[in-house]
Design goal:
Blueprint lengths: L1 E3 L13 E5 L5 E5 L11 E5 L3 E11 L2 E11 H13 L6
């Protein structure tokens, strides 16, 4: 799933399905389902893969092929542990 992070709140666009084609070096090459989406170079995105969540930037795009440079990557297992422990901590009283 690929989601545009440049729009926020109620205006946030829904994600679109992608397939990971390969990882050229540190970057990801993904195929988007619809070539008519407006993911342009420079767009900040969230790439949701089965084993990890990546935040990054689109470097280039040609048709339905997109190259993404990840800035931050979290393994799903670690993210699940963070979520579980976060819920156990009581909110701070201000």
């Amino acid at each position: 799933m690929l989601r545009d992070l440049s729009s926020s709140g109620a205006g946030r666009k829904p994600g679109i399905a992608v397939a990971l084609r390969q990882s050229p070096g540190p970057n990801y090459l993904v195929v988007v389902e619809s070539p008519n989406t407006d993911f342009a170079a420079g767009t900040l995105v969230e790439l949701s893969l089965p084993d990890r969540l990546c935040l990054g930037e689109i470097l280039s795009r040609e048709g339905n092929l997109v190259i993404i440079r990840p800035e931050h990557t979290l393994q799903r297992e670690a993210l699940d542990d963070i979520r579980k422990n976060w819920k156990q901590v009581a909110p701070l009283a201000c």
